[in-house]
Amino acid sequence: YQVPQSPILVKYGRKQFLEPMLQEGRIRICPASFYNNSTFLSSIQDDEITHNFFIPTFRERLSGQAFIDFQGHRIEFGDHDIVLPVVCPDYFLVSLCDHIYYRMPTDFDADAALIIRNPSLFTQRVISHFLALHPDWEPLHGPVIYYDPYQDYTKFKDPEMSKHFGYSYQREVRIVLRAMHRVRSTLQPEFLKIGSMIDYAELVCA
Questions:
Q1: Cα(first)–Cα(last) distance of the chain, in Å?
Q2: Strand partners, 13
Q3: What does the longest C-alpha to C-alpha distance in the chain come to?
Q4: Distance CA 17, CA 170 (A)
Q5: pLDDT per residue over 16-74, tens digit each?
Q6: Is 67 helix (H, G, I), strand (E, B) or coil?
Q7: DSSP codes of every residue in 97-166
Q8: pLDDT exceeds 70 at position 151
Q9: Cα angle value 198/173/141 (rounded, 5°)
């Protein structure tokens, strides 16, 4: 396959699902909580709602300490580092990659890849069709920011657009829709029909 020189987005998956996406623009958009599933492959399974940061305590542990006093509170860490969880409300997520990489078909159990040659048009159509159904939601889109949970505290701006640096090889690009109000029901996967993508995308099959 001759990779286009211009920017692309790539969706790896099974041909049976990617063909309708190409022909009809039929896209399944899932809540972030959907991916926290132990039956998924390790490259897909992740808690997208909770991001854990860590304060190392090895110096204290080497000196025999098992706790620290912080702002009048005793924090006991025992034999572990201190965990600082950042939890955000559930949101909708469309996940793609910005390159073709040999490891990805295996990681995503894929026998096909949808190559999108007009990322801006695709992103605009996904967002506009979603907002037509849910006008009180806020869109975010762009490359994922990968962070080191022991060091990159300041890089963490939008948790929905952030991921542990262990996944950085995936070079993920996201379209995120997050509620601007409190959601009182459990989010469920939805299907969007954004129109045929034949004019600006192509399907490459194993």
A1: 11
A2: 112
A3: 65
A4: 21
A5: 999 999 999 999 999 998 887 655 555 455 678 888 888 888 888 888 888 888 777 88
A6: strand
A7: ESS--TTHHHHTT-SEEEEES-HHHHHHHHHHHHHHH-TTEEEEEEEPEEE-TTT-STT-S-GGGEEEGG
A8: yes
A9: 90
- Cα–chain center distance at 188: 16
Distance (Å) of CA 40 to CA 46, 107, 158: 9, 10, 25
Distances (CA, A) of 203 to 27, 88, 111, 153, 183: 15, 35, 11, 39, 36
With CA atoms as reference, report the closest residue to 142 among 103, 104, 94, 107.
Answer: 94
Cα–Cα distance for residue pair 119/122, rounded to 1 Å = 5
Alpha carbon dihedral 155, 160, 164, 168, in 10-degree steps, equals: -90
Structure tokens of 193? 């029909």
CA distance 173 to 156: 16
- In DSSP terms, 28 is beta-bridged to 191
Q: Give the DSSP letter of residue 82.
A: E
At 149, list the tokens. Answer: 């949970």
